[in-house]
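[job 4471] stage=fold_predict status=RUNNING
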Amino acid sequence: MTPLTRFDEAPRRGDAPDRDRLSGSGMFWWTVFLLLLTGLAMGTWIGTFSVFGHPERPLSYKILRKIKKLDPPQRFKVNAAPTGDFLSAEKAWVRWGALSDFELRSLNVQLTRDYLRNFTQTTAAVPYFMGRVSMMDAVPLTKDDLFPSGVVALAVSPDWPQLLIEHVFPADANVAPLAQRTLRTGMELELKRTYDLTAVIRVTRLEDRRLVLTVVPLTYGGFAVRSNGVGFQLSPPEELHLAADWPVVKDERRAEAERKYLAWRRSANLPALLVRTKDGPPMPPALVEAARAAAVDVVASSDEVARRARANTASVSAAANAAAGKGGGG
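[job 4471] inference complete, writing structure tokens
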């Protein structure tokens, strides 16, 4: 027997399309949700790579130190220090003086990153500076500086005056005053290969084309004056303030140190230090003598040295020619 169906209970025309619209709307929002999750996962992965791969960036350094994934700089023993190349002032200038700005930025990223990682994740040779330097001035470090405590001494290489050295002496806050009094203007410090592991952790090119090497002794040992035995002991920094940027000695402090050093040289009746030409080879003998006569200052740029020397040579030659003309006429 065929069942009866009431016509008023039959499905209405609008029921099926409504269900289709609801189903399509749900798929759209699920797609948006999955895309957001994918973007979040990729962002997290990229962010993690950026933080762990670039500890030299101030924000990355703070995060890594906060989560204890980056140790503070450690003290090395002489016989357990990372292998490296020992560079004199001249060799350092030859290696880095002609680098382009891009090459210099890449070098500094590598140097700073290796130092912050205690040289554990690199196969590159550590550049160590060695040679004799003359102290310009010593500046105490504060919590606003890149190294929070100790002293930084700005020095110049007498053998290669285009090269400035900012030697960081990290130490406890109570040691800094003694270190500053010990590192007097004009004092000479000789960094030797046998026991000084003074690593170059930054290379800065100034506007006048001079180079500033930021160096730190990896042994964090002691320094004393040979004549009286007065000295101080270094200690590795617990934390760095990378937001202070490089170099450690900023322009105003450096200019003041240079003025102080020049005043000391003049008061001591010392001859001016000659700056070699920018292209590398020494100046001709005539220019050297002319530069000596002009009393060129150590802080003058190499281009300024050449300009002054040539001008002095020209005046000397003109005077000689004039004298020769008079002698010939007589």
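[job 4471] summary: Residues 15-53 form the longest helix (39 residues).
[job 4471] exit 0
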